[in-house]
Structure formats: C-alpha cells, structure tokens
Write a structure and sequence with these properties.
alpha/beta, single chain, seven-stranded mixed beta sheet, 275 residues
Length: 275
Amino acid sequence: MNDKVKPHLTDSVAETLFIPLSMRARETERPDAIIRDPLAVALTRRIDYDFSQFKHDDMSLTGVAVRTCYLDERTDDFIARHEHPVVVFLGCGLDTRRQRLKQADRAVCYELDLPEVIDFRERVLPSNERDRYIASSMFDSGWMDELHTRHAGQPFVFVCEGVAMYFDIGMVKDFVCRLAAHFPDSELYLERSSRMMVNRANMHSSVRHTQAQFKSGMDDPHEPETWASNIRLIDEFYYSEHAKRRWGLAGAFMRLVPTLRRSFGIWAYRIEATR
C-alpha cells in the first residue's frame, strides 16, 4: 500500500464519500474515540485526496462517530436475530462497516453505489464472497429484482446512510415504496435531514467543499408510513442527543431547539410482510 491511488469521480454526490471516511479516520486517532476504524486510517493514507479540507469540521466528526456507532450496533443486532441474513449498504462509498461488524461472518453483505464509486472501491478495498459489490444507482430497480430472486425468503436489512438528503423527496419516496414491495419482512435504516436543511448544504462545513446539495428533508418520522401500508416506524435516533459532552455548547443549544435537535438523524422502519 505504498502507491497513492487517485480517485476520478465525476458525480458531486459521490465525492461526499470522502467526508465520512475522513471523519472515521480522525475519530479513530482520538484518545476518547467513540468508534475505532483503523482501516479508514489506512485508506486515507493510501488515497491521493485532500482530506485536510475537512479537518476543522468537529460537528461532523462527532455526528459521523455517533451515527457509525449506532448503525454498527443495529446491523450487528439484526444479524444476530436472524438466520441467513442479507445486509445491503446503500450508497456505500468507502464505508468499512462490513469489516467492523462483530457478526459479519454470519451474513452476506452487499455494497451498492454508482459504477464509478464501485470501480474505485474495488481498487482500494476489493470485494470478496461475503462482501459483494453492486454497481448501480439505488434508485434503479434491477438490483432489487436480482437480490429478491437470489435470496428468496431470507431476511434483509438495508442501511441508507448519507444518501437520501441529496435527492428529491419524490425519488426517496419511490425508492422506499419499491423496497417495501420487493422485500417484505425486512428492516430499513434511513438517514435523513430536516426540511430546514434543504438547500442549505453550504451550512455544512464539509459538504460545502463539494458541489453536492441537500435536496430533501423530512420532519415527521411517520411520513414514510403513509407511503406504503407495510411500513412501520421502530426507532428514532438524533445525533445531538448522544455523546453530549463532545458536542459542547453548540450541542446544548441544538438540544434546546426541537428543529435543530432533529436536524440530522436516522429513522428505522420495519417492512412487514404484506397480507
């Protein structure tokens, strides 16, 4: 791993993958780290990219750390509760969750992202039999058909992290509805931002270094339940409510204002078997 690998990504949303990678690497090197991800550290040292532009974003550092911890735990829990589970990481970027999971060897994992992202991921983090890659937009239905057929009757969990806010709400709704139709008896972990954050990517000190924009937001965690009859909310997770000391005074202020407290978080849903 001595030679630097230079990415050539053309999609503005795809470039945001370097933000959580950078944050996980920085977090790992803290003495009070919430999560440990030595592979993220190794990747940032191998990739020829200017990660220094994110080094002053302490809010994102804490946010990525707490969401990573939560999603790692929930994914491990899903695997432990099911036989022959299938895990799908949507918009995976350069996430290393498969390598962090304690229960990973009990599941088949799929990493899904745009073809140019998957091509780059293969160069720095090759796939294997238990960690398979899908080069596709998550909004295409072909991969759903394929996985539904390949793993008929098996339980699925979908982790949609750092993706939905970059797309129109109509696209997000259509995606969730098709997921609910294809995969009854599954779970979805959906990261979302509030409506207040729509068109305010410039307020995010790391995202503003890219050309990406926040295009959708949701304030009511029950809204997706109205999209399909078999969707049920099972959990709400808001970043500022966790690791409170790390957020400092800014976090204390956010927790006092409901719209700020819920500005970023993860909503979890059970997709029930249709009757």
